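Repro:
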Amino acid sequence: MGDDSTWEDFRQFKRFVRARLFECFNDFKLRHSEYRKKTHGYSIKSLEHNLREDYFRFENDLSIAVNLFKKAVMRYQEAAPAQKLHFQQKLEKAERKLSEIQHHFISLKMRLSENN
């Protein structure tokens, strides 16, 4: 039982990060780039509003991803000993990716606040 739910939690985490978090991060990055260039026909007010929406959506998605990751870690702790090493490597890789995403997010957040 522990193995199946552990792997399903991890798959759910990966699907979520790939489908929503990266999509949101890329949207945010694109709009931030447009904001900095003040191009593409956006008014600054409109683009700033869109950036703020992206920011809050990204922040929410990041929070959900962290919670999914924590759930996967808890399931890992319940997993059979034979599965732990392989699964631990996967969790460490996911944790590094999550830290990288958080770093990019904080960097974009700081740049956005500099523009206001």
